Amino acid sequence: MAFHCIALAHVDPAFAKYQLTLLCREWFQHPNGAMPAYEWAFDDVNPPVQALAALEVFAIDGGRDIDFLGRIFDKLLVNFTWWVNRQDADGSNVFEGGFLGLDNIGPIDRSHLPPGYTLEQSDATGWMASYALSMAAIAGILNRHGRPTTDLVVKFLEHFALISDAIREKGLWDDEDGFYYDQLRRPDGTVVPVRVRSMVGILPLTAFAVIDEPVLQRAQTLGKRFARMIDERNLGLDRHAAEGHLVGEPGNRRLLLGVVEVEHLLRIFTRLFDEEAFLSPYGLRAVSRWHLEHPYHLDLDGIDATIDYEPAESTTGMFGGNSNWRGPIWFPVNYLIVSALLRYARYFGDDVKLEYPTGSGQQQTLAVIGDDIRRRLISLFLVGEDGRRPCFGRVEKMQTDPAWKDNILFSEYFHGDNGTGLGASHQTGWTGIVADMIRRGGGADIPSLAELMAGTHARADS
Length: 462
Prior knowledge:
- By secondary structure, the protein is of the alpha+beta class.
- It has one domain: Glycosyltransferase (Alpha/alpha barrel).
- Helices cover 38% and strands 11% of the residues.
- α1 (2-8) packs parallel to α3 and α12 (366-378) crosses α14.
- The two termini are 26 Å apart.
- The model is unreliable at 234-244 (pLDDT under 50).
């Protein structure tokens, strides 16, 4: 629903805001802060994306409806606390989460583990870092509009610092493979990494923020965990400036802080931009194509499971066998990664160029890369040079019949190699987020988060 609302906001922002607040109403949100997952299992856990969606809908609507932002912020405060209290069993700031809507992306059911086992999740931890930053951003906007929330900005930056430290220190990063993995913690406390190259290890790179100098100076004055994180990473602002980590003029400089260190980020990009791994002609695959020739086997204390690259329908019965995250292209995570790449591009500018696709010898800026992946995703629905839409695959009625060929379906997910639409064809609202990609690619006047925070975006009422 959160992703659906980002697309809806371009058509009917009032309805999009109503839908976002709906699940936060007292008759849906649990008193402990939990939000319902879906009608057949209210207590399952889905990614905490409401704050991100609230910011996007607020921006698409022109950044004016402070009442909406304040109302949903109050409810999300309770939900954030639920996550911290219920989904971090040992208080380590590495989160469990469980299912998280990714169905069979792992070799085992992440919500139903053997007794005594805990799954420490890279994606859940990345989600919570992003959640903390989104809440800090909302608090900052509310503060600028007269609601005294400076202490809450600091609170959420502190949470981000704690999560950022945890993802570095608790073993989720595998330096040999250059990737983030989930890890199974046995009852005796020993840990086994789950070495599957999937979106689980990509999502942490979306958890970053560009912090401006006044916020940095205030954080350092307070001297709390967030300030120590800044200092520990290159010994303060002066050292950051000397090494090029700060951009802008003194007094108005900006610093990039993320849970993924820059050197790790570049290693992940090498895999992400590889056409034999994640990069498909139509977007980013949920599991690396590398696993087609290198299946992963988990044989541990009675657990015997395998995962390989499955670009279309699931070949396993997990979750009923009617949904597959083992290779197809899914729009929600693609949307987040493209958005992250374009935000990285605004920070690094044209100074940073990477090989894209990996192995091609061609160097491209992050802006060009992000825009190319966005075009690949949009091309799923476009008529190609062969006169066919990739999303319709081999269904000739949809490809050629005049009564059907222009009726686009929003499939649940798409074949990882040829782009055929799969899964539910009308049910899945998140694929409609391609509308947001089209509008942004076409130059829609949508304020950036930096403009919303600074109050510098002026948009005429339409």
